[in-house]
Amino acid sequence: MKTFNILIVIFLMIIAQFSQAQDDISTGQFGSSFDKVKSSEENWKVYEGLKVADTTLIQLSGKITEVCQAKGCWMKVDLSNGQEVFVKFKDYGFFVPLDSSDKTVVMNGKAFIEEMSVEEQKHYAEDEGVAKEEIAKITQVKKTLRYEADGVLINQ
C-alpha cells in the first residue's frame, strides 16, 4: 500500500510541475529563433529614412498594443516614440497568443513602409471588431509602418 501511495504522490508532483510550466504560454519564442542583439531605445528611427517599397533588416522592440483576435496572425506594436508598427509573420508561418497585448516584444525581421489598400484596411478593421459604420468610413489608401517578423520573443 505504501508503494501505491508513493506512486500517487510522484504522479501528482509531475502533474503539478507540468501545469506550472504551462501557466503562461503567452511569453516565449515564436517563429524562428534568433540571437537578440543589443538595440537602441530609438530603433524606430529606421522608418525615418524609408520610402514606400524600401526594406531594411533590423530587430525592433516595443509594447504589443493589439493582437488579431481571430488567430494571432498579426499584431500592432508601440515603438518607443509613440508610433505604432503593424506586424505580420513571415509566410504566415506562426502566430502569437491572443493574450499577448501589453507585453514587451523583440522582433527579428524586416521593416518597411507600405501603402495599405482600402480593402486591406477594412479586413483588419473587421479582425479588430470595429463597427460596420466605422469600417464604411475607410475610403483612402494609407501609408503604414510595417514589419515582417520571422521570429519574435515575447516577455512579461
TrEMBL record:
InterPro entries xrefs: DUF4920
One family name in Pfam for this protein: DUF4920
UniProt keyword Signal present: yes
Record's keyword terms, sorted: Signal
Signal peptide start-end: 1-21
Protein name, entry field: DUF4920 domain-containing protein
